[in-house]
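agent> Task received from the user: take the single chain below, predict its 3D structure, and emit structure tokens. No templates, no multimer pairing.
agent> Plan: (1) validate residues, (2) run structure prediction, (3) serialize to tokens, (4) report one or two observations.
agent> Step 1 OK, no nonstandard residues flagged.
tool_call: predict_structure(input=
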Amino acid sequence: MHSIKRFFNELIAEHTILFFIMIILIIILIGTIAFYNLEGWSFFNSLYFTSVTMSTIGYGDMAPITHAGKLVSMFYGFMGAPLFIGFTWIVFQSKFQKILKASIHAYHKEAKEAEKIALELEKENKKQDKEIKEIQDEVEKVEENK
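)
tool_result: status=success, residues=146
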């Protein structure tokens, strides 16, 4: 049981969009099978109606006749919008995270470059300070010899 839980946690963490698509497809398949059995529609018409209902388009060209079909239709209508909004949110969040990670990576790369340049400038400064000190010492020696 623990390994199954870990598998799904890793799947969700690494493949959120794919996992969400799989969930939506499973829900669509369940609805398709329900309408196929409850209303006696063809598989394609059941799939079509489920998709149209879940996406909240609702063309009105088909409607369930049975009470059970109407209940399933209401359920799919109410859950369709949140599912599609959630999917859109996950897609945008995933893209935003990729952009954010790339920006952070670029920032860290630039910061490391700036740090490297600062260290080189500091070395050069110390070298120049040493040369200035040597020149000052020589000037003092020359002035003492006068």
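agent> Step 4: summary for the user.
The chain is about 90% helix and 0% strand.
agent> Done.
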